[in-house]
Amino acid sequence: MSEVTAIVAELRDRAGKGAARATRRTGKVPGVIYGAKQTPICIQLDPRVLWAEMRKSGFSTRLFDVDLGAGGKHRCLARDVQMQPVTDQPIHVDFMRVSSDARLHVNVPVHFVNQDKSPGIKRGGVLNIEHHNIQVTCSPDNIPHEFSIDLAGKDIGVSIHVADLQMPAGVTPYHLELTETVATIAPPTVAKAGEAEAAPAAG
Fold this sequence. Notes:
Structural class: alpha+beta
Helix content: 10-25%
CATH architecture of the largest domain: Beta Barrel
Number of domains: 2
Oligomer: single chain
Number of strands: 14
CATH class of the largest domain: Mainly Beta
Largest sheet: 7 strands, mixed
Order of helices and strands: EEHEEHEEEEHEEEEEEH
Radius of gyration: 23 Å
């Protein structure tokens, strides 16, 4: 069962850029709830509430119950957050409604653990990450929070593939083959001192 987080928001009367700017002047973050073949709803919420959730891991893979009071509760996924380029603060958020029988495409982050226990990395090997996120297809109640890859015992030359990820039942990679490489531990790229000195002489 996917984690569900309750957050409180308020209805907004108007849509459009002018209305969004007016909402920001009141200190709130404008947003919209859309999807599930229902009419989009304009909302606003406390930026501290949104920022607190964004700082937690798995923001894009957690389900939210957005409580609009008299406007009801809406189970959603956070789909997009626009940031102010100077202050890096959220200025707009999109939530997508989900139903229990829906099939979703979700980007799940990949985390690498125990790098200090990898003999390959200890010997100077480089962890080359091909996919920081893996897009999967799943139901709303079965969204993986993350994929954790244990590097303990992994040596230089090791490749980790999509097939090596522990996906729960009902979760499948989207547009990725099981043989797709997620990461490798490559040999050190620093040239030997003798090679570096010989190169100018050869030229």
